[in-house]
Amino acid sequence: MKLSILGGGGFRVPLVYRILAGGPAAGNDAGLVDELMLHDTDPGRLDAIARVLADLPLPDGAAPPKLTFAQSLDDALSGADVVFSAIRPGGTAGRTVDERVATRLNLLGQETTGAGGIAYALRSVPAALQIARRMRELCPQAWLINFTNPAGVVTEAVMPVLGQRVVGICDSPIGLVRRAARAAGVRLQPGSLAGVDYVGLNHLGWLRGLVEDGTDRLPGLLADPGRLASFEEGRVFGTGLLQSLGAIPNEYLFYYYFRREATLAMAGASRTRGEFIHEQQQELYARLRSSDQPFREWEAARRAREEGYLAEARVDGEARHIADDAGGYEQVALDVMRALLTGARTELILNVRNGATFPQLPADAVVEVPAVVDGGGARALPAKPLGLHETGYMSQLKAVEREVIKGGHGDRDAALRAFMIHPLVASAHISIRLLEAYEQAHGYQWS
Questions:
Q1: For the chain, does the N or the C end have fewer beta carbons within 10 angstroms?
Q2: Which residues are catalytic?
Q3: Which residues are annotated as active site (predicted)?
């Protein structure tokens, strides 16, 4: 089996390689892939990550897959059984522009949410469509596992090309479920989400129930401030808000429920999150290419990056508790791949076709919900009906996503409408200024 990673010079690629290489922690993923091919449009980044992989310590008995490097997109796709798409059109420099343009207009400057998320999607969608079309020509039976952001938008954009052979992933929902279950004393069964009631879109979701032995344990968790304070989302949102909602939101809803506070925190920062990442990676990748201990350099940078994530949501500079995270997107992607290739059924929270899950949304819309994955693909599991609160947010954001996809196909008016109707922008005048600023910075192509 051949796995190709697009964006193979990405910061988290060593985590994928380490799991695939085997050893006690790899579980069923060891030996699943014979060849791991990396492709990146930046040769310097690819060279740096190659040096980390060569220096990565592996346990006794590890059997890493053959590591190869593709010179072109077509080389990477030819003969692939699975493709991981983790590209970042515009790079980290593009992200810093997205964030700063929004901040200068007194808007939230965040990579995947609000103005910055739309700007990013207008670059990601055309690039993802190019990949999907080449896959249809070069490896039509391959599976695309997408974690190119914004993941829900990109997944929905390529479904007309690839059909059910694309699955979108994000680690935020399953991380939330695992943390909340641990705090509630609920034991999740491996490969099962029985009793888990999670609904939403990518970066916009809510955990509404945790049923064990016929009893919903979530109300008891929400009534206990001490247990809520034991995990990330409980600390971010606070007991009062969570009890009012009767649910635990995905961490990205911080930007909606605390819009003013997040905007002020970001505006007052000496540099944006994107600027921090950009500067860190520029320095890090240069060091990795010359260091005699590239793995140690990479590991230290990874921990620093994780600890600074969503810093604007935490009080007094509190560091993120890395132990809260039970495996990142690399493990979710590998779990999906294993189910697709072996047919062994598993359940995960994924970006999949809505179908009849939520009648309020189009059948071909992508939603982020518990899904079953096997050799036939990923399909949404039945879900309880949406309340008005969830319906309002999801309908409005789905309308934004639909306009963004049209914008990615070259429709400038649709791109403008996406800014206008987004709840974190919601101003025609500001939307015009945003689009003009992003056009000048990124040179979007319109039909």
A1: C
A2: 171, 252
A3: 171, 252
